[in-house]
Design a protein that fits this description.
Number of strands: 0
Radius of gyration: 51 Å
Number of helices: 5
Order of helices and strands: HHHHH
Distance between the termini: 152 Å
Largest sheet: none
Shape: rod-shaped
Structural class: mainly alpha
Helix content: over 70%
Strand content: under 5%
């Protein structure tokens, strides 16, 4: 492990940055207040800050995550990676990872995230539905169904009355047919009486 990666060096680096910033601020304060030695303080502070920026530029950035420790070779796009968990296993038992495999896995994850996003937007649309008048709407629908049931019951009673009326008309028609027959017989009898 290099000295630059040690905790002691990181502490020293933060100390230098903090002290340099403090000197710059004090120089600016001296200059704003026109105190004695203001120009020298400002020159000293800005010089130290310039050296700190040069120092940080030469060090290079720290990686945000240390995935390369778990997957050695992760920083090389075409490199084969083997997770540390498989370090003792045979090479045919370990899953080989490279940039294309990682991209494929990320592509699958992206598809699932897009699906989840669509589901969430559907839920959001449902959330935006106004249910404030639902109670009144359900009450009016209940009244509507009650009136429909009453109308259906009345219609059923009307059908029974219509059937009775039809039966009575049929009986009346039959009686009229019998009366016509009797009347016809009477007319024939009277005609025969007049001939005799």
């Amino acid at each position: 492990m290099s000295f630059v990666k040690t905790k002691g060096f990181k502490y020293f680096k933060n100390l230098i940055i903090g002290v340099g910033a403090a000197i710059v601020l004090m120089g600016a304060l001296f200059k704003l207040e026109s105190w004695k030695g203001a120009s020298e303080m400002l020159i000293l502070g800005l010089s130290i800050e310039a050296l700190i920026f040069l120092f940080l530029g030469l060090l290079g950035p720290e990686p945000d995550y240390y995935w390369h420790k778990l997957y050695p070779g992760l920083d090389d796009y075409n490199g084969k990676m083997t997770p540390i968990a498989y370090a003792g296993a045979k090479s045919e038992d370990t899953p080989a990872l490279n940039g294309q495999v990682v991209e494929a896995k990320l592509g699958g994850m992206l598809t699932e995230l897009q699906s989840m996003s669509k589901s969430m937007s559907s839920l959001k649309a449902l959330q935006e539905v106004d249910f404030s008048n639902t109670k009144e709407q359900i009450k009016s629908m209940s009244n509507f169904y009650t009136k429909m049931n009453e109308a259906a019951t009345n219609l059923g009673e009307s059908l029974e009355d219509s059937k009775k009326y039809k039966d009575q008309l049929a009986a009346l028609n039959k009686n009229l047919g019998s009366l016509n027959s009797v009347y016809g017989n009477m007319l024939n009898a009277m005609a025969n009486i007049g001939k005799n």
